[in-house]
């Protein structure tokens, strides 16, 4: 009984968070759900979009919606604008000499935060990109012989621009694999954009006075509840079949790894919880396959990218529909 009450409270909290974010971010319910899915799955998200679509405001709104233990302005949010001249120490921090203590002390960089916006991540050099690898994968940063643990809540929202590709460094497969989900943030529809134009002052006021609807501890609790979401054995088998299908398909030169499959399972559970359910459905697989797997695969050509994974997914959904596991 107590667990049911906790679950119901968790589901209500997620809806409160979504509705709070939508006071500022209009017409982006699906994208918000993907972002929260990555958050609850203890992962990170990569967004490909054009400038001015609301990515910075989205990250700020999320951070300000979550109250910190000692801060009344939301959890610690940092934004890093990635540029070609950026150095790893600009992210991690560096040792500086303390005149009082007469010794070098470590001054922490912006990676020591709760919510990080890594803006235009593919504009920085591979050395800087790799500085994110350890903290995204292991929630820690090693500086010399000392390892610093990051906060229990550490969530990265990274963006890359799909148009201005000059002077960029494409993210390597190892870096892309750290992002649980990749989405196109995109523009809103015409009606929503008109609504934004009419009420842009009200939206700015909402951002300035965003309500803190959840605490950091409640977010950590939701992450634990995500692990308890029920998943039918056939759903697990479907994930295995899709992952294996990417390895055997003639139009895919690099298929999904075992880690990709585990990430897929975590995201399915989180997406179910974000949508108010304690169990995973076939539709969850249909919605999440491309955002979770596409950026991890290497295709032979552009035509293959449009068809290969879609064909694998269709075959597996057809198999699941015959089993009728949702009834």
Automatic annotation (TrEMBL):
Which part of the chain is the ChlI/MoxR AAA lid domain? 246-304
Name the UniProt record assigns to this protein: MoxR family ATPase
The answer to whether keyword Transcription regulation applies is no
A single Pfam family it belongs to is AAA_lid_2
ATPase AAA-3 domain location? 44-180
**Which superkingdom heads the taxonomic lineage of this protein's source?**
Bacteria
Instruction: Write down the species.
Output: Panacibacter ginsenosidivorans
Residue stretches in coiled coil: 4-31
Keyword presence, Methyltransferase: no
